[in-house]
Amino acid sequence: SSLQDAAGAVEALRAGATGWVSQTCDLAELVAAIHAVRAGRRWLNHHVQAEVIDLLLATSSQPRARSPLDT
């Protein structure tokens, strides 16, 4: 599932990975990920980006910063 993939991506990133792609990504995405990482950028498979962000925010030990939109 997408959530399991996201959890695997979070685990990889916390272990020091610079990028993550799913085993089912297509060749074009794999090549783009390799080029991005070789250029010093981070890469996340587009199918799990939102879930990874949600997991990281949910497990963050930092308190949530107050938003100027909070009333």
Map the helices and strands.
Elements lengths: L1 H13 L4 E2 L6 H12 L4 E2 L4 H10 L13
Parallel strand pairs: 1-2
Helix pairs in contact: 1-3
Helix segment tally: 3
Roughly what percent helix? 40-55%
Secondary-structure element pattern, one letter each: HEHEH
Radius of gyration over all CA atoms, rounded: 14 Å
Distance between termini? 37 Å
Class derived from helix and strand content: mainly alpha
Percent range for β-strand residues: 5-15%
Total number of beta strands: 2
Q: Within the largest sheet, what's the order of strands?
A: 1-2
- In the predicted model, the low-confidence regions spanning at least 5 consecutive residues are none
Overall form = elongated
Mean pLDDT: 87
Reported for the largest beta sheet, the result is: 2 strands, parallel
Which features would summarize this protein structure in a list?
about 70 residues, mainly alpha
In words, what does this structure look like?
It contains three helices and two strands. With 71 residues, the chain is mainly alpha-helical. Strands 1-2 form a two-stranded parallel ribbon. Strand 1 (19-20), helix 2 (27-38) and strand 2 form a beta-alpha-beta unit. The longest helix has 13 residues, at 2-14. The chain is elongated. The N and C termini lie far apart (37 Å). 14% of the residues are buried.
